[in-house]
Recover the amino acids of this structure.
């Protein structure tokens, strides 16, 4: 199950990175044509794409670590809390949310009528929230394995005879 969730996690991160890089490419082309002067969206989408690659790499490395721990039964070097996913995931969700809010503001001000960019950002946010949910599920599976290995490693107590 952990492997399947990791594959979904990596696939969703790749899809979100492709969407972000596609948006960054479209913004770069629009800048070259003189249709926009905004640099922050270009930097933000490029950053989202790069952070998604880091997220996928972390998911892949965690999958390999989990498999190794399962083979050896040694869970002693495992982290106690999965901070790398939590911090990176929430940072990405905030960046994408910031892009959605700024795009809605631009629509209200009449600066753009492009709804496809808004739809792309909403899809990216939904994918990111699904990825955070998968991360929680993977962490729950890991803790179940960790607890099971810990319980079996405890010495059994024998009752004292009076």
């Amino acid at each position: 199950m952990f492997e399947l969730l990791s594959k979904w996690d990596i696939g969703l991160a790749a899809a979100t990175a492709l969407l972000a890089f596609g948006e960054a490419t479209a913004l770069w082309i629009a800048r070259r044509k003189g249709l926009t002067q905004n640099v922050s969206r270009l930097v933000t989408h490029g950053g989202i794409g790069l952070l998604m690659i880091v997220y996928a790499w972390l998911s892949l490395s965690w999958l390999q670590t989990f498999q190794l721990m399962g083979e050896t039964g040694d869970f002693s070097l495992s982290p106690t809390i999965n901070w790398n996913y939590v911090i990176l995931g929430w940072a990405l969700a905030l960046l994408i949310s910031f892009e959605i809010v700024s795009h809605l503001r631009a629509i209200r001000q009449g600066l753009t009528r492009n709804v496809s960019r808004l739809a792309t950002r909403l899809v990216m946010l939904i994918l990111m929230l699904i990825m955070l949910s998968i991360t929680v599920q993977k962490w729950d599976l890991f803790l179940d394995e960790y607890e099971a290995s810990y319980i079996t490693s405890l010495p059994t107590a024998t009752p004292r005879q009076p």
